[in-house]
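Notebook p. 47: complex prediction with pyridoxal-5'-phosphate.
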Amino acid sequence: MIPPVLPTYNRAPLAFVKGEGCWLQEADGRRFLDLGAGIGVNALGHAHPALVAALAEQAAKLWHVSNLYQIPAQQALAERLVEETFADTVFFTNSGTEALELAVKMARRHWHGAGRPERSEIIAFEGAFHGRSIAAISAAGSEKLTAGFGPLLPGFRHLPFADMAAIEGAIDETTAAVIIEPIQGEGGIRPAPDAFLQRLRALCDATGSLLIFDEVQCGMGRTGRLFAHEWAGIAPDIMMVAKGIGGGFPLGAVLATEAAASAMVAGTHGSTYGGNPLGCTVGLKVMETVSDPAFLAGVRRKAGLLRQGLEGLVAEHPQIFAQVRGQGLMLGIVCKVPNTDVVRAGHDEQILTVPAADNVVRLLPPLVITDDEIAEAVARLGRAAHRLRAEA
Ligand SMILES: *Cc1c(COP(=O)(O)O)cnc(C)c1O
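Predicted complex, C-alpha cells below:
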C-alpha cells in the first residue's frame, strides 16, 4: 500500500526535533553532528540566533504581500547581491529549480529580444543537476533523472563535463547559452578546473552566447569565496542561487547582467511567493554574515583543517576511502565501499553526511562549524571507517 507521503525518497530512520549550530537532536536526546546541513542549505547552522530573531521579528509584522507592491526587504537583498557580485539585477524564487526555469527563459528571451528567436539551444554538461522540473531534468539530461518523464523539453545539448576538447567547436553563433555548475554537487563534488571555466567564458564572449552558472549548491560562501566562480577570476552573465541563501528558509534567486536580462520586461515572469518578506529578511541576514571578508577567510581556514583531517582518513583507511576532492567546505570523499554504507556507518557514529554520484560521500557542513567540531567530525568518520573494516 502506498504510504501517505509519496515514497520518492530513500529516508534514513532518523527524525530530528531540534537543531542548534552543527547539531541535530532526536526526540530521545541523541545528538548528531550535521555535516550535510540540509544539503548545503543551513549555511549558518540550525537555529542561528540572528536568523531566528530576524524571522520572528518579521513574522510579527508581515508575512506575505504580493509582488504587485514594493517589498523593502526584497529591494534591500537585491541591492546587496548587486553590490557584491557581477550582477546588475535579481529575481527572487523559492527554490533552485525555479531559478533554473527563469535562467532558461531569460536566455531564450534574450535572443528573442535580439531578433534571433531561433537561437535557442542551450549547452549543458553530463553529470549535472539543475532541479526536478521538466526543464531542469531536460537540462541535466541524465537517464537517472529523465527516465519515464518524456517528452522532454527540446533545445538542450550535452557535453562531457570539464572536457576542453569537447567545448571547442560546440559553442558557436547558434548557441543561446551554456549552463554549468562550477562544482557539480549531486554529480559527486566534481570541480570544473579554473582553466575550463575561463575557456567557457572566452568561447561565450567570442560567440555572444550567455554563460549561466548554477551556484545553487557551491555558492553563498560554501567554497570560501562568496561565489565559487570567483576562484577562476571570471563571471557569468546569469547565475542561479538557492540553498544557502535562505539559511534554511526557502529562497532562491537569479542574478543577471543588464545585457542578459534586458528582454525581461514587466509581465514576462513572476512568482506568487518569490521574494516574500520572510525569505528576504532572513536572506539579507545570511548575506550580511556570509559576504563579510573575515567570515569567508574563516571558511577557507576551516576548510583547510577539514580537508587535512579527511586526507588523514584516506591514508589511514585505504580500503574504505580513495580520495578527497572539492573546494572549501564543499568536500567529497570518493569511496571504495558503497557510499551509502559509509553514510549509514556514519549514522551509527551519530554523524550526518550525504551521498552523491560517482560513489562519493559529500560533506557540506554549516559554514559556522568550529575547529573542535571539525576534529569531532573527523574522529566520528574514522570510527565509521573502523566499523566498515570490521564488517568487511
Ligand atoms: C539543489 C540544486 C538545485 C535544485 O534546487 P531546489 O531548491 O531543490 O529546487 C539546482 N541546482 C543545483 C546545483 C542544486 O544543488
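Notes: The longest helix spans residues 293-316. Residues 92 and 118 are 28 Å apart (CA to CA).
Next step: compare against the earlier run before touching the bench.
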